[in-house]
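Worked example

This section walks through a single chain of length 268. The input is the sequence exactly as stored; nothing has been trimmed or padded.
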Amino acid sequence: MRLRLCTWNVNSVRLRVEQIARLVDEQAPDVLCMQEIKCQEGEFPREAFAAVGLPHLKIAGQKGWHGVAIASRLPIEDAAPLDVCREKHARCVGGKIAGIEIQNFYIPAGGDIPDREVNPKFDHKLDFFEKLTADFARRDPKAPLAVVGDLNVAPGEFDVWSHKQMSKIVSHTPVELEAFAALKASLDFIDLPREAVPEPEKLFSWWSYRAADFRKSNRGLRLDHILVTPGLREAAFRTGAVSSRVHDNVREWTRPSDHAPVTADLAI
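Given that input, the structure is written out below as tokens.
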């Protein structure tokens, strides 16, 4: 059985209902993990998801801001909640689907100043990574776990349009890269999109709205991730190569999110 995971920062689930339906029709994800849903649980468009064949939902909503959700074709069992956001924002939701624990995150962007002493938002971001890394470090890497979402770090030289120019900009500063590397090392996570598109090829999932033509400027960042534990290595490499991609064509649709969806297939 193929299980297709998709992560997408939709930048308001109610505004993107038609685009979500189109994505589901074209790419047939079995599990769609969304960030920045920007609504409370009671405002979530449940009927629209049932209509496209994703009736099973886990939602962590918040009025006007943040918010994450998982929509699935298959039933979702409960997973132990993670207490990693000190501000108690709706930034994490998890569940177990087909025996795989899936944790969906919207990690804080971190503001504009990459100094945790003077910028509380940046401190919050690093604190979030530290708490999450500590939790994962206590786990068994053989347990099947997928960590997905907008992690708000472009972790590699080829995950940004200019490594030199971005090295002092929040999302690609050395301290953030160290935090991401520590998270990845905590369970020896496998970066599925990068396995499918090895360096030095550039790979982006976000482009600013400021560019009139995002493809022409192509000043992108890879902020959206699908990481899996070694317990899912066989499922990810069952055919010998990882099937994962960024669906950047979605960024061309009418009134798009500034993020593109990212998918990865697991054989279970």
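What to look for: The two ends are 5 Å apart (CA to CA).
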